[in-house]
Here is the input.
Amino acid sequence: MKHTKLGIGLGLALAASLPSMPALAKTIDIAIGHQSMCTDTYTAGIVVKELGLLEKNLPKDGDYAGVDYNISWADYSSGGPITNQMMANKLNIGVMGDYPLIVNGAKFQATDSLRTLYIAGTGYNLKGSGNAVVVPVESDIYSFDQLKGKAVSTPVGSAAWGMLLKAMQDAGITEDISLKNQSPAVGAANIAAGKIDAHSDFCPWSEIMEFRGTGRKIYDGSEAGVPYLHGVVVRQDFAEDYPEVVTAFLKSVIEAGKWIEENPSEAVDLMEKWTGVEKEVLYIYFSNGGHLTLDPTIKDKWVDALKFDHTVLVKEKAIPPLDFDAWITEDYIKAAYADLGMDYETDKTTVVDPEVANAGLPAEIWHSRDGILKYESYPEFLTAIAEFQGTGAKLNATYVYDKATGLKLFGKTAYFVVGKDGAYETFLRKPDAEAYAAEVNGDLVDLPTAVAAFIPTD
Amino acid sequence: MMALALGSRLATVLGTIRPRIGLWGALTLAFTVGYYLLLMASLVLRFGTLPNYATLYNWPGSVWTIIRSTPSVRDMLPIIAEEYLLEFGYMNYDYGLGISEWALNIIPFKVFLMLILSGLLAANLLLLRTKSSCSSRARLRAGAATGLGAGFVAITSATMSWVVCCATPTWIVGLSMLGLGVSTAFWIEPLGPWLTSTGYLLLVVSLMFLAKPFVAGSAPASEGVSTPEISSREGAHA
Here is the structure.
């Protein structure tokens, strides 16, 4: 009887360990948690996965000669579950936004024996664009202060929630907004149905709502002035056991970024197939002049932003302390840069400010047959739209830039101001457009009205 | 003396359960299954959608992975306690490749806690049923304590996840679903383990109270000498 019990016990232990028992040749399991519905994570997630970049970069000689790699990818809708799975060692590497990253580091540091390392960024927006507050398209709310006394939903704990808190503090209406906890999908559905006054969300949800014609941005994260960034965390024990594998992963992240920068149209087309997010929405993030700067370096400014985010989380969610010096390391990303023959310090000191970088960029039309067409001036852009409309050509989307922030916008959601001299400027927010119109004694119009002025009359 | 009294009451409890072990087991199982059915029903009613996916996890494999890769036992246990076995939920395919909007997670550790709760609850009910000679005030007090204790444990053992709460199963999801404010919900989240402990304590206290011979209304004999047999003879614990 005793032997039977022992046998059953050993059998169970064997059965439980079978999936992870090393074969004769050494097998290294690499499990990565990513988010296919969060654009800023794509260069360390879906792109690396689908292009097979990690497989290409993994070490195959020296200590790794004859090693088999078992790579698995798990897709999540937010960073919280990725952290939980990393705790259970079912994921070695995780990709997430700034607030969940901090929760990840703090939760691990609260344990006795487990740690993660923040090893690289994936992309950023210097001013905080990517997060935004959206209202139903028919709403009469046009600025953040008009939300006083209204109900605003947000995924609590996300970067968008942090931005919303900061915006409420900046506007002095902390006590006057009824905050609701809603998922991106539910928030977007409620915006479409007009069931909520406003919804604050992270990338690319506000642009999805704008593109589908259900929502309108009234506040962009750039107004909060806190950089919005995403990054990569790895379990410290994994990084210490296989540092070359971690470096190989980061080389893949860098290459994924280069691939997108070199082929934005092709990239968004493929990413739409991989993620289900419309390519026209992805183009706002990944094109030249897009919201996202693909840069994996860890800048001092980012560390300051993360420290600020941590203070918000401590106050609002009582998360544990986080020793940033122990958590953040540049060793692996520097090694990846070195392996690729790239200059880390140059990239680290380069910061892209959309207001400066996007000044003078051409407006664009995404023609369904001819692809992306660029126009140096707004009259040329509007004339082209008028002509395409005249021929019944299908336009997937149009893109212009916000004069105030340099942000790329959908033409259909922008406010156009035409001056007395016939010069056009475009704006994200109505109050900015109204102020500019008053300044230049111009008229504020929407896209159809602006286009109407260029329809040939004969 | 105290140990003797407690031992005597425990014997009373066992004496009440033993002849009805089948009923007690059935009640324990029914309460546990009913609890999870109630959670699922509340999710379906709250969100107006039926579950459209189910996932079975390799729980033993996960536990083994955690044991092998977590050096500290103190870290290991809470991580194991969060491991899923089953997940039923609703996947929203309106955006991207689908997002799990809400889910009911079957977590073996929580199921174990629920079984303890259900076992205590069933024992209390059996004792209450046999306490026909008790004053109604005493029965009411014991019933209220049982209900309150069960409520605390049930609420804090809820394993529903809602993507708004960063998609991790937490007991405050239930409160959020009932409309509790976000900040308040997060403020009370750390109280969970305390509420659970209080709940179990109330259940155990009410169980011991019910096992006391000659509860309120009866002239108490010397506790130290009372035995289940004597109590049974008095009709209190039969």
Q: What stands out?
A: Chain A touches chain B through 51 residues (CB under 8 Å). Chain A has three domains: 26-126+228-349, 132-223, 358-452.
